[in-house]
Specification:
The protein is an all-alpha fold. It contains 15 helices and 2 strands. A two-stranded parallel sheet has the order 1-2. The chain is globular and about 50 Å long. The mean pLDDT is 94.
Length: 334
């Protein structure tokens, strides 16, 4: 079987020990998928694996709100970020919720028939644009904001990790493109997806997470997001101060658009390969090539270093999106 991993060789889940093994056990129980590549690819940086899982669990799985709605928002994010792996995954998870007709409409490129579903999908897609006006009106009850915001931010991060470090094939041979396969896989995890889980279980896996964001204060999504921010910042040590400044300034000025092929501000891989990788991870991770990785990943850098550098760039974009969310000015659709 062809490996789904690019640029790294993670340890097989069956060989995991300690906290990594605990994360995999929670994944299997609450997500319904053993050895999900989306998380296994982070295993060489256990602090990132743990925090990423915690945010997804405490927002998408255990957070307030309808699972179908949150899957639609996550699908919108994945479309906006051009992550076909995650688009296919959320389509199958919609099958798992029991919304088979909705999943197939989206697979065919059609809009949902239900206006509420259409607004959730569009809202998720609009969150790629920092501070965009389309995000200011909530397509869900305001009490569900921590779960929905946590969900979209977790997938803005995960999309970038997936696009940088996994192939586009969710299943071998891209067989998820067949309706029967999508339905079958969705049904195989439907019992887990539809089960209610208690919030907070993932927080026991975290160290001191840091300051939680105001939009999630008092919820289990808050510490999870703070932990992901703290874990992602460890990648900063792999860059010079000059390169960190370039990443900060470029991402701060980003308006949500995908960079052009002739991206004038992208450093050359021969001169500043680390800054190039971090910026690509932030704004166009699907354009990271073998040559980009090889130019930077030389001894003493390891798989764990590469994962941390990509995560640093990915979270720079997440932080830009999160800081521009007009949450204080949010209105709610009646």
């Amino acid at each position: 079987m062809t490996s789904p991993f690019r640029h790294t060789r993670p340890v097989p889940p069956k060989s995991a020990t300690g906290r990594t093994a605990e994360v995999y056990a929670q994944l299997a129980r609450d997500f319904g998928i053993d050895g999900a590549p989306t998380f296994v690819v982070l295993s060489s940086a256990p602090e990132l694996l743990t925090a990423t899982w915690a945010l997804l669990r405490e927002s998408l799985i255990a957070g307030e709100g309808d699972r179908t709605g949150k899957e639609l928002a996550a699908l919108g994010v994945s479309r906006a970020n051009r992550c076909p792996f995650c688009v296919d995954a959320h389509t199958m998870l919609l099958h798992a919720t029991g919304d088979h007709a909705l999943a197939e409409r989206l697979a065919r490129g059609e809009l949902p028939r239900d206006d509420g579903h259409a607004r959730l999908l569009a809202w998720g897609e609009a969150t790629r644009v920092p501070g965009g006006p389309e995000v200011a009106v909530l397509p869900f009850p305001s009490a569900h904001t921590p779960a929905y915001v946590g969900t979209v931010l977790s997938f803005h991060f995960i999309n970038r990790i997936v696009s940088a470090l996994l192939t586009e094939n969710l299943l071998p041979g891209n067989v998820q493109r067949f309706r029967a396969v999508r339905s079958l896989v969705g049904r195989s995890v439907s019992r887990t997806v539809r089960r209610q889980v208690a919030p907070g279980a993932a927080l026991a896996l975290l160290d001191e997470p840091g300051t939680e964001p105001s939009w999630a204060a008092g919820t289990t999504a808050g510490p999870a997001y703070a932990a992901l921010r703290t874990a992602s910042e460890t990648g900063a040590a792999l860059l010079s101060e000059e390169d960190r400044a370039l990443v900060r300034e470029t991402v701060r000025a980003w308006d949500g658009r995908h960079p052009p092929l002739g991206w004038p501000g992208l450093p050359d891989r021969t001169d500043r390969p680390g800054a190039r990788l971090a910026l690509l991870a932030a704004l166009a991770p699907y354009r990271i090539t073998d040559e980009d990785v090889a130019a930077w990943k030389r001894p003493p850098y390891t798989d764990g270093c590469l994962v941390r550098l990509v995560a640093y760039g990915a979270f720079a974009a997440v932080d830009r999106i999160e800081s521009a969310l007009p949450l204080a000015a949010h209105e709610e659709i009646a």
